[in-house]
Design brief:
The protein has 394 residues and is of the alpha/beta class. It is built from 14 helices and 19 strands. The protein has 2 domains: 8-60 and 148-391, L-arginine/glycine Amidinotransferase, Chain A, CATH 3.75.10; 67-143, Orthogonal Bundle (Pentein), CATH 1.10.3930. The strands form 6 sheets. The chain has a 5-stranded mixed beta sheet. A 3-stranded mixed beta sheet has the order 2-1-19.
Length: 394
């Protein structure tokens, strides 16, 4: 896969499940949600999103399905049990008990525990003397849920014919990459895929990785992705000869701009939808290979100039979110910048971002609107909720 806009052929999504039912007013901040979603409505919205993709001939793979299939391999099952049980947190006796229990469950049951977590009340038999168990409230988590699985873009990203397993920054999300590791290692469809990056490397998240054009990758550096992560991924891409230029793009370390794709996304081969306040302030450091494993770093340069130069075009067309500052800020917060391209000039966007969608249409971009009143409660749009696996070249 060499772009953000080539015709999309296959994508990995995660349909909201019981993990979202674990969110409460006491834990939603810690689990990175701004409000408590109505799970049934979120599932309806997600089903409609998936159907929109299928109607455009996109193969939709659901994470829960591929995880269950992967856990059918005994090696994956054992690895899944290992990632669920935290001895340092549970103590030896309780950890041994839980490990023994999970080792005997079906792939479906284990997949549910890995995604939705397990409370102390739900642990197997209460026999024995575990101080950890006695001192925890029954509704405390022995295995944390993963409500952010919904945002499949962050935990892995395909670059060329290789998959990069993210190194997620926030504690609430770190275990997600272990599940993706299992899927890409043991699912028959992916088991031969080469890796572009490993989950134990410096922090980098897929929402910060943008394939501007064949051989040109932009990486946001901010709240979730570090400069060390951007440099490590760049060196890996150069070594594998899947990129000739990588742009490191500093972004504000704030909730509203947690990833590069909350600031801008590609909507055509030469166009981005972009938060207006970022148009002139975004810069980029340009990294290129210099032979014998060395790398040359230049900049900073205005992002739009550096991107156009690396892509070999005169300029990048910019479509702003909103005509006035208030609307722009509101629609950026509501993921107006976070569109998923299904083909050059065809994108999926949240229907609530009315002005942004109008501006896209006026610029010749077809917008396929979807509802997202509940899906957006974790701050993520159509791009955040999708991990493209296969696109045609442009």
């Amino acid at each position: 896969m060499d772009s953000e806009v080539g015709p999309l052929r296959a994508v990995l999504l995660h349909r909201p499940g019981n993990e979202l039912k674990r969110l409460t007013p006491q834990n939603n901040d810690q689990l990175l949600f701004d409000s408590i979603p109505w799970v049934g409505r979120a599932q309806q919205e997600h089903d409609a999103f998936a159907e929109t993709l299928r109607n455009r001939d996109v193969e939709v793979l659901l994470l829960a399905d591929v995880l269950r299939t992967s856990l059918g391999d005994p090696r994956a099952h054992a690895a899944g049990v290992h990632t669920a049980v935290d001895e340092r947190r549970l103590g030896n006796e309780l950890a041994d008990s839980l490990r023994s229990h999970l080792s005997s469950v079906t792939p479906d049951t284990l997949a549910e525990v890995l995604m939705a977590g397990m409370t102390f009340e739900e642990l197997p038999s209460a026999e024995g003397n575990s101080l950890v168990r006695k001192m925890h409230h029954p509704h405390d988590f022995a295995v944390d849920p993963l409500p952010n699985l919904l945002f499949t873009r962050d935990s892995s990203a395909w670059i060329g014919d290789r998959v990069a397993i993210s190194s997620l920054t926030m504690p609430a999300r770190r275990r997600e990459t272990a599940l993706l590791d299992l899927v890409y290692a043991y699912h028959p469809r992916f088991s031969r895929a080469d890796r572009a990056y490993g989950a134990h490397s410096a922090p980098i998240e897929g929402g910060d990785v943008m394939l501007l054009s064949p051989g040109v990758v932009a990486i946001g550096v901010g709240e979730r992705t570090t400069a060390a992560g951007a440099e490590s991924l760049a060196r890996s891409l150069f070594a594998d000869d899947v990129a000739h230029t990588v742009l490191a793009v500093p972004i504000e370390q704030a909730r509203a701009t947690m990833h590069l794709d909350t600031v801008c996304t590609m909507v055509d081969t030469d166009a981005v939808v972009m938060y207006p306040l970022s148009r002139d302030s975004l810069t980029a450091y340009t990294m290129r290979p210099a032979g014998d494993g060395a790398m040359k770093v230049e900049g900073p340069t205005p992002f739009l100039i550096a991107a156009a130069e690396a892509m070999g075009i005169d300029r990048l067309r910019v479509i702003d979110t909103g005509l006035d500052p208030v609307t722009a800020e509101r629609e950026q917060w509501d993921d107006g910048n976070n569109t998923l391209a299904l083909a050059p000039g065809v994108v999926v966007g949240y229907e609530r971002n009315v002005e942004t969608n109008v501006r896209l249409e006026e610029a010749g971009i077809e917008v396929l609107p979807i509802a997202g009143s509940e899906l957006g409660s974790g701050r993520g749009g159509p791009r955040c909720m999708s991990c493209p696996i296969l696109r045609d070249s442009i």
